[in-house]
Amino acid sequence: MADLAVGAIKSETAENALLEAAMRVQALERTTANNPDGRNFVNVSINTDAGTATIAATIPVTQVVNTDGSISFTATEYLT
After folding, report:
1. What is the pLDDT of residues 34-76, one digit of tens each?
2. What are the extents of the domains in the chain?
3. CA angle, 79 then 13 then 1, to 5°
4. pLDDT tens, position by position, 23-33
5. How far apart are CA 78 and CA 80, in angstroms?
6. Phi first, then psi: what are they for 64, rounded to 5°?
7. 14 CB-contact burial (10 Å; exposed 0-12 / middle 13-18 / buried 19+)
8. Apex CA 62: angle with CA 5 and CA 18, to 5°?
9. Is 38 exposed, middle or buried (0-12, 13-18, 19+ CB in 10 A)?
């Protein structure tokens, strides 16, 4: 997961960092060693005519009800 380690994202704006991170996750999803189940939860579409990028992510989560009644969600790891 060095592709997403602290300091790996080099973009200097929030928008570019989001795009860079999404594209790095997409690359990890395409790699069988990192994604043996072949899951495809992050999609990036670039529209060159409009000059826009669309990022869609469906992240598996685990829900827990805490002792105080609050609900916590934790992303479920699917990439190794």
Report:
1. 999 999 999 999 999 999 999 999 999 999 999 999 999 999 9
2. 2-75
3. 20
4. 999 999 999 99
5. 7
6. -130, 135
7. exposed
8. 35
9. exposed
Query: pTM score, two decimals?
Result: 0.79
71 token code pair = 């609900």
Q: Could you give the CA distance from residue 62 to residue 72 in angstroms, rounded to a whole number?
A: 8
Phi, psi of 45, rounded to the nearest 5 degrees: -120, 130
Q: Which two tokens stand for residue 77?
A: 């790891």
3-state secondary structure the chain: CHHHCCCCCCCCCHHHHHHHHHHHHHHHHHCCCCCCCCCCCEEEEEECCCCEEEEEECCCEEEEECCCCCEEEEECCCCC
